[in-house]
């Protein structure tokens, strides 16, 4: 939105005019200004907290205002928080005005829907479950206005067709805004009770704690992703021959894990294992990784140390879990002819057997500087032929089922590649030397 098209600016101007029209009745409406001011200050504080914790939008206070105040008065509540908070992206002033106008319209619509169904009387009387019906209508109105306006600005600012700007936005937003609506309703009921506004504001404490925990979880996940990205980039810089391979092995490992019925957490760990399976190459001399022609037996032994190097590098990264054993053992073979320890059968960790199949599959289906990629069907046939001796048949069958369901679109990497473990009989001399 840095270079905002004229039609998008005109759209913003129309939304601002509509928001101002919603505020006009303030001059003739009896407004409880102390309540408006208190809720506006609380919303501004919550917005600041949400931004600092990366927790996303925080709407309970706005919906409580819609349940407690006349529409024009409720529409005032988001203005200070939206106008004076940092937008984070340019053009900042336009973004602040847009967000303020959007929230004014959404809160106004929610308050109108709530009052049309007798919501204020139900809130004052603490009449449950009758109070839920007008509150639900208010949440729907709030969500519809937000998503409609978001879809409009998205379509105009990004020159996106209308049929692509809105789909899915409402359904994705409804559940979280519904939770905020329940908290807002609880605030409104307590506000009108003998306990008063102080008790109502206490409702926000557990929500803030849960949002802080949620934000911490996502920060931790972002740190994990950054750690993995840095390691993969370091490998790619050291060995351009494998660029792109790690991400594809991670994707194939994830497909196999899902087909085997593993839970989401373990699927994510297997994806990490696939992405980092060759991180030990950072400990291998660059001249060996980039050497043209066959390797000497001594050079081969040095390269075959990379699983152990990789395991040492990630041993202290606790969130990787069983991915660490996959990194160590992904070159083992069922018949015991693999490395580094010559494990056989079920001695090889399940995660390593998954990555071994994903690794070999991507090696065969990627175009290299010295040979063209094999078709997916031919690569699968080779994996099946080597199943039982080199690969776990369960993993091969799971990959085949996943490919039937989702397909595979490998990138053409003329200068990229992998130190994959291709099937014994299919490996060229150059690729076999780098296994």
UniProtKB/TrEMBL annotation:
* InterPro entries referenced in this protein's UniProt entry, alphabetically: Cyclic_di-GMP/3'3'-cGAMP_PDE, HD/PDEase_dom, HD_domain, HD_GYP_dom, HDIG_dom
Q: Which domain of life is it from?
A: Bacteria
Gene3D superfamilies associated with the record:
Hypothetical protein af1432
Keywords linked to the UniProt accession: Membrane, Transmembrane, Transmembrane helix
Query: What are the boundaries of the region Disordered?
Result: 414-435
Q: Where is the composition biased (Low complexity)?
A: 418-428
Domain HD, chain residue ranges per copy: 242-364
Which Pfam families does this one have?
Answer: HD_5
**Name of this protein:** HD-GYP domain-containing protein
Q: Where are the transmembrane segments?
A: 6-26, 33-50, 62-85, 133-153, 174-191, 197-215
Looking up SMART domains in the UniProt record yields: HDc (SM00471)
PANTHER family cross-referenced by the UniProt entry: CYCLIC DI-GMP PHOSPHODIESTERASE TM_0186-RELATED (PTHR45228), LIPOPROTEIN (PTHR45228:SF4)
Occurrences of domain HD-GYP (ranges): 220-415
This protein's record includes keyword Cell inner membrane: no
């Amino acid at each position: 939105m840095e270079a905002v098209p004229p039609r998008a600016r005109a759209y913003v101007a129309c939304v601002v005019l509509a928001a101002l029209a919603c505020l006009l009745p303030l001059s003739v409406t009896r407004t409880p200004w102390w309540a408006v001011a208190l809720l506006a200050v609380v919303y501004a504080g919550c917005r600041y907290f949400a931004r600092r914790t990366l927790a996303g939008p925080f709407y309970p206070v706005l919906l409580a205002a819609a349940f407690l105040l006349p529409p024009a008065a409720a529409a005032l509540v988001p203005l200070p928080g939206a106008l004076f908070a940092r937008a984070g992206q340019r053009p900042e002033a336009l973004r602040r005005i847009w967000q303020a106008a959007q929230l004014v319209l959404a809160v106004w619509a929610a308050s109108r829907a709530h009052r049309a169904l007798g919501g204020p009387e139900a809130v004052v009387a603490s009449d449950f479950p009758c109070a839920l019906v007008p509150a639900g209508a208010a949440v729907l109105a709030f969500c519809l206005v937000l998503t409609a306006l978001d879809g409009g600005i998205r379509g105009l600012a990004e020159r996106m067709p209308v049929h692509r700007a809105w789909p899915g936005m409402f359904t994705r937003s409804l559940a979280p805004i519904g939770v905020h609506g329940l908290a807002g309703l609880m605030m409104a009921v307590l506000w009108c009770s003998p306990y008063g506004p102080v008790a109502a504001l206490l409702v926000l404490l557990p929500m803030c704690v849960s949002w802080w925990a949620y934000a911490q979880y996502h920060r931790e996940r972002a740190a994990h992703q950054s750690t993995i990205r840095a390691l993969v980039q370091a490998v790619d810089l050291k060995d351009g021959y494998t660029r792109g391979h790690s991400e594809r092995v991670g994707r194939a490992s994830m497909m196999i894990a899902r087909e085997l019925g593993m839970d989401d957490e373990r699927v994510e760990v297997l994806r990490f294992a696939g992405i980092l399976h060759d991180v030990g190459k950072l400990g291998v001399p660059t001249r060996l990784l980039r050497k043209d022609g066959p390797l000497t037996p001594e050079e081969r032994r040095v390269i075959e140390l990379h699983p152990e190097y990789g395991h040492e590098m990630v041993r202290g990264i606790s969130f990787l879990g069983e991915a660490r054993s996959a990194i160590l053992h992904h070159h083992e073979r069922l018949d015991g002819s693999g490395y580094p320890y010559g494990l056989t059968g079920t001695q090889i960790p399940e995660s390593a057997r998954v990555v071994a199949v994903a690794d070999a599959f991507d090696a065969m289906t990627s175009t290299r500087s010295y040979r063209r990629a094999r078709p997916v069907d031919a690569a699968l046939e080779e994996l099946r032929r080597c199943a039982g001796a080199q690969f776990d048949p369960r993993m091969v069958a799971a990959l085949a089922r996943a490919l039937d369901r989702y397909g595979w679109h490998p990138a053409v990497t003329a200068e990229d590649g992998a130190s994959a473990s291709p099937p014994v009989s299919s490996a060229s001399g150059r690729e076999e030397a780098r296994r």
